Amino acid sequence: MGRVGVLLLNLGGPDQLEDVGPFLFNLFADPEIIRIPFKWLQRPLAWFISTRRTKTSQDNYRQIGGGSPLRRITEEQAYALKQRLQELGQEVETYIGMRYWHPFTEEAIARIKRDRCDRLVILPLYPQFSISTSGSSFRLLQRIWLEDPKLSQIEYTVIPSWYKQPAYLQAMADLIAQELNKLPNPDKAHIFFSAHGVPRSYVEEAGDPYQQEIEECTSLIMQTLNRPNDYTLAYQSRVGPVEWLQPYTEDAIQALGAQGVEDLVVVPISFVSEHIETLQEIDIEYREVAEHAGIHNFHRVAAPNTHPLFIQALSDLVVDALKSPSLKLSQVTQLKKKVKMYPQESWQWGMTTTAEVWNGRIAMLGFIALVIELITGKGLLHFVGIL
Ligand SMILES: C=CC1=C(C)c2cc3[nH]c(cc4nc(cc5[nH]c(cc1n2)c(C)c5CCC(=O)O)C(CCC(=O)O)=C4C)c(C)c3C=C
Ligand SMILES: [Fe+2]
């Protein structure tokens, strides 16, 4: 079989507070994260948003020890996966390719080339597919492959999403059961799945299958858990002014409080490692929301991290991928049906919803310019030195 590599893809996170600004810039400079139709505007906008967000984001990272644990946990997962595959008689080297921070995907590919891998399994550490996560990493890899003819010598296969993988579902069910079993009355607890949100337009305009995969995954986990508890699915981590998938986690917690729910068991559903959105957003911010809503028993299920069943899930995925016909990066978008991955290449002229949103934004900028001129007596052209 030759040398086999497994490339684990993830988002990446700042290792220390000084990394937060550049990390955010990389994130917002990605057209799969901020889908704007004009390529030239992407980097100035990324600079503007990241500069404005850095302080708030740094404050949040400070609350979890000054940086993201994502790199450390992903390295532990990569090591555990290598060991597990070795036990099964399958020698592999594992590589970590982060999208927005070290070790970058480009660094992983350089190592894969240096090690002369003959076969490669590309495995995103996101159970469900979204244009903004796995989609973005696949798009980057497609570009890297196009630019480097030597890479065509590597026989690779992609795993687009894997939220139905049985050992993953068992790992999630086991983690939830562990938390429920700590409660005096486990059946009374309300199980609250909190998924990372995406803007609604991703699903409704760009055809992102993310919401459907999250919903199906949630119900498969509940079937695997096989307990009588009530459950809710909501979406967290909204950024910016546009509408994201609903219900929002904050609103859903308040609604449950108003209904008299006393025990809440929160399950992070789109992440496989602890990171800022579990450790800060759920454990600190949503706990406070719950407390105000009268829910005093707030529990959070751990992310899979290196749970043995989860590592088994990853190794089963790799073993199956090596046995199956290979799936190429270019085939993923076809497989995920009508997904429009490239906003700047798929802009449609006419009165589409996207055009309406952009008309609104441009009108708002014009209005702000008018107010500035009324207050200062000088127009925008004065400020940029043209007049
Ligand atoms: C499935 C998981 C994720 C989806 C979907 C996703 C979409 C998405 N995220 C943002 C904006 C931000 N994400 C940030 C950090 C972050 N997001 C994910 C996962 C998903 N994002 C991870 C694993 C991380 C890293 C966390 C860490 O520990 O460092 C951040 C930075 C943190 C902050 O300032 O809040 C932002 C911003 C958008 C806009 C988006 C969909 C379009
Ligand atoms: Fe995110």
Structure explained in plain terms:
The structure is a single chain. The strands form 2 sheets. Strands 2-1-3-4 form a 4-stranded parallel beta sheet, sandwiched between helices. Strands 6-5-7-8 form a 4-stranded parallel beta sheet, sandwiched between helices. Helix 5 (131-147) links the parallel strand 3 (119-124) and strand 4. It has 387 residues and is of the alpha/beta class. The model has no long low-confidence stretch (mean pLDDT 92). It folds into 3 domains: 4-163 and 307-335, Rossmann fold (3-Layer(aba) Sandwich), CATH 3.40.50; 169-300, Rossmann fold (3-Layer(aba) Sandwich), CATH 3.40.50.1400; 353-384, no CATH class. It is built from 14 helices and 8 strands. Helix 1 (20-28) runs antiparallel to helix 2 (39-63) and helix 5 (131-147) runs antiparallel to helix 12. Helices cover 50% and strands 12% of the residues. The chain has helices spanning 20-28, 39-63, 70-87, 105-114, 131-147, 166-180, 200-204, 210-225, 249-258, 276-292, 308-323, 329-335, 353-376, 380-383; strands at 4-10, 93-98, 119-124, 155-158, 190-196, 231-236, 263-268, 297-300. Bound molecules: ligand L6N33NVT and fe (ii) ion. Residues 11, 13, 27, 33, 53, 57, 68, 70, 126, 130, 132-133, 196, 198-199, 239, 270-271, 275-276 line the site of the ligand C=CC1=C(C)c2cc3[nH]c(cc4nc(cc5[nH]c(cc1n2)c(C)c5CCC(=O)O)C(CCC(=O)O)=C4C)c(C)c3C=C. Catalyzes the ferrous insertion into protoporphyrin IX. It catalyses: heme b + 2 H(+) = protoporphyrin IX + Fe(2+); Fe-coproporphyrin III + 2 H(+) = coproporphyrin III + Fe(2+).
